[in-house]
């Protein structure tokens, strides 16, 4: 099992990137960079490429609406070149609030767009001349306003003919597609003991259609770690993120994280969190997150307990444990957890 952390989109990006890069010697195998509608992640990933030597660097995530598939492929290839072959491409459909509200794009065909983007990226990295007409046209045909475009291949030569593609997916159809075509999966709010119940069927269905050449699906999941006899209190630090995702990441009826909390058996609490968050009562929403959910989404407690949590993630198929260290000595925490993997 590998170890990673995710650079969040709040705060000073340079300070955060420097702090995360400093954890590489402690044992980080990968650094993921979130984007949402804050600072763009490719700029920060390029900075990290210059500040690190061995850790993989991935987007978590680039949405498949605001950039063309060709630009996504170029971005990943550029990062791979700068980092010496350490790039990971995390993709996802995001959600209608961000896609329509921020990028001004219609939120349509999320599954088709995701599949097509992965296919086109892989063709571009192989330096194929691309003549493709689907959701995306390459080149733009005359009937859609094209005049001088012709099929092209990427001008530069990518470091690798294939960059690992990870997909953020929660719903059954998204997870089924991910298990079929992606190199890896980026689930959010992952409870290892519930994973089989919630996602087992779509994972199996997608795997049945998977090209064996892709190898086994890689899964990235984890939570906030804290180790010690009194470390259970650190679980409360997970409340703001859980409240944000369950309560604020989407309108009522279109929040995938809320739906996941319902699937986990927290339907009543999820509704209350959402109601509070969408009416501006963020602190009350955080307080409404059940203690049991905070525990299931974190790795906080005595050494034996944390080791058991890590084993649960491994048993659930997680191949990269993504942790968010807190406290005054994050490097020590990373080193300790790395030694237990």
Structure description:
The protein is of the alpha/beta class and 341 residues long. 44% of the residues lie in helices and 14% in strands. The strands form 2 sheets. Strands 1-2-3-5-8-9-10-12 form an 8-stranded parallel β-barrel, surrounded by 7 helices. The protein is globular. Helix 2 runs parallel beside helix 3 (69-83). The chain has helices at residues 13-21, 41-51, 69-83, 96-101, 110-125, 172-181, 192-208, 239-248, 256-263, 267-278, 282-287, 291-296, 303-315, 330-340, and strands at 2-7, 30-33, 56-59, 62-63, 87-92, 132-133, 137-138, 165-167, 184-185, 218-227, 298-301, 320-323.
**Average predicted confidence as pLDDT:** 96
Number of H/I helices? 14
What fraction of residues sit in β-strands? 5-15%
Helix/strand-derived category reads alpha/beta
The profile of the biggest β sheet is: 8 strands, parallel, barrel
Number of strands: 12
First-to-last CA distance: 6 Å
Q: Measured on Cα atoms, how large is the radius of gyration?
A: 20 Å
- The spatial strand order of the largest sheet comes to 1-2-3-5-8-9-10-12
Helix content: 40-55%
- List low-pLDDT spans: none
Order of helices and strands: EHEHEEHEHHEEEHEHEHHHHHEHEH
Rough shape? globular
Q: How would you briefly describe this protein structure?
A:
With 341 residues, the chain is of the alpha/beta class. The protein is built from 14 helices and twelve strands.
Secondary structure layout:
Blueprint: E1 2-7, H1 13-21, E2 30-33, H2 41-51, E3 56-59, E4 62-63, H3 69-83, E5 87-92, H4 96-101, H5 110-125, E6 132-133, E7 137-138, E8 165-167, H6 172-181, E9 184-185, H7 192-208, E10 218-227, H8 239-248, H9 256-263, H10 267-278, H11 282-287, H12 291-296, E11 298-301, H13 303-315, E12 320-323, H14 330-340
Parallel strand pairs: 1-2, 1-12, 2-3, 3-5, 4-5, 5-8, 8-9, 9-10, 10-11, 10-12
Antiparallel strand pairs: 6-7
Helix pairs in contact: 1-2, 2-3, 3-5, 6-7, 8-10, 9-10
């Amino acid at each position: 099992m590998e170890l990673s952390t995710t650079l969040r989109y709040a705060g000073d990006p340079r300070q955060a990137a420097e702090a995360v890069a400093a954890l590489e010697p402690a044992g980080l195998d990968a650094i993921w960079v979130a984007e949402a509608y804050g600072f763009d992640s490719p700029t920060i990933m390029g900075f990290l490429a210059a500040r690190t030597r061995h850790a993989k660097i991935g987007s978590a995530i680039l949405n498949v609406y605001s950039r063309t598939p060709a630009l996504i492929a170029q971005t990943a290839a550029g990062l791979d070149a700068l980092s010496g072959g350490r790039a990971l491409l995390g993709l996802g459909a995001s959600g209608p609030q961000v896609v329509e509200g921020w990028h001004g794009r219609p939120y349509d065909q999320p599954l088709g767009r995701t599949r097509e983007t992965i296919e086109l990226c892989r063709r571009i990295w192989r330096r194929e001349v691309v003549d493709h007409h689907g959701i995306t046209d390459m080149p733009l045909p005359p009937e859609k306003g094209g005049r001088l475009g012709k099929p092209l291949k990427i001008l530069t030569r990518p470091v690798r003919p294939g960059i690992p593609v990870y997909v953020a997916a929660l719903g059954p159809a998204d997870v089924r597609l991910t298990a079929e075509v992606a190199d890896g999966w980026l689930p959010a709010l992952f409870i290892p003991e519930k994973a089989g119940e919630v996602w087992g069927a779509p994972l199996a269905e997608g795997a049945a259609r998977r090209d064996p050449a892709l190898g086994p699906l890689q899964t990235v999941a984890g939570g906030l770690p804290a180790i010690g006899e009194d470390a259970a209190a650190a679980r409360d630090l997970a409340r703001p993120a859980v409240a944000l995702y369950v309560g604020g990441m989407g309108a009522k009826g279109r929040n995938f994280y809320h739906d996941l909390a319902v699937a986990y058996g927290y339907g009543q609490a999820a509704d209350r969190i959402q109601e509070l968050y969408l009416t501006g009562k963020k602190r009350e929403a955080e307080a409404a997150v059940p203690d049991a959910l905070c525990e299931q989404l974190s790795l906080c407690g005595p050494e034996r307990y944390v080791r058991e949590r890590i084993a649960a993630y491994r048993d659930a198929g997680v191949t990269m444990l993504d942790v968010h260290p807190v406290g005054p000595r994050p490097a020590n925490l990373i080193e300790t957890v790395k030694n237990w993997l």
